[in-house]
Amino acid sequence: GAVVSQHPSWVICKSGTSVKIECRSLDFQATTMFWYRQFPKQSLMLMATSNEGSKATYEQGVEKDKFLINHASLTLSTLTVTSAHPEDSSFYICSAGRNVVAGELFFGEGSRLTVL
Amino acid sequence: GDSVTQMEGPVTLSEEAFLTINCTYTATGYPSLFWYVQYPGEGLQLLLKATKADDKGSNKGFEATYRKETTSFHLEKGSVQVSDSAVYFCALTSGGKLIFGQGTELSVKP
Fold first, then answer.
1. How far is CA B22 from the centre of its chain?
2. Chain centroid to CA A9
3. Does B40 touch chain A (CB under 8 A)?
4. Which among A2, A11, A44, B22 would be 20 to 30 A from B42, CA to CA?
5. What is the largest CA-CA distance in chain A?
6. Residue B78 burial (CB < 10 Å; 0-12/13-18/19+)?
7. Residue B32 forms contact with A (CB below 8 Å)
């Protein structure tokens, strides 16, 4: 399958700082990328859908000013957690879609954020 | 809205046992259905999929059949191995997005 790279895989930050997580599709162009949050022992919660060159679409209950998503190119989307707090500590996973309806959705390995 | 419900885990089996992980869904229209697997320390991978009713997806010895009448997509494998230990997620497409079930952890003991 295609390769999606997520960076960093692990980050610790102080409360009140901002953290940026990158998601790159390495061998295909992804017009759509998704950002998920996964809590321990729980499912993936879709946070937002980003389309290249346009504003992200956020799911209900997700603060768009706190979780800034940028999809600047067909191979890169970024998630910035602004003014992070301990409750933002989680596992964030991106996925890049080549053909979502057909299930051609490839996942990054995730980024574990710990806010102290 | 559309949703997916999976049986709760963890599921613990002995090697070579038969596996069933139940998945039912609620959806308007006719979604595509998927099973994803997440091995320890790794990202999610597509395991199998079915795009219409009565389709059977299969991969690595796993199978699931899209049952529209029971709105189900149960995952089965005839003989599990220790290497199958992972978390399994059932999912469906909805409005251009993937909706996941809560995941079922499978632990296979030698």
1. 7
2. 12
3. no
4. B22
5. 41
6. exposed
7. yes
Non-local (6+) Cβ contacts of A99 within 8 A are: none
Answer whether A54 touches B (CB < 8 Å): no
Element (H, E) at B20: strand B19-21
> In A70-107, which positions are buried (b, 16+ CB within 10 angstroms) versus exposed (e)?
ebeebbbbbbebeebeeebbbbbbbbbbbebeebbbbb
- pLDDT by residue for chain A (116 residues), tens only, comes to 668 899 999 999 999 999 999 999 998 888 889 999 987 767 788 999 998 888 899 999 999 999 999 988 889 999 999 999 999 999 999 999 887 776 678 888 899 999 99
- Return all residues near A105 (Cβ < 8 A) that are at least 6 apart: A34, A95, A96, A97, A98, B46, B98
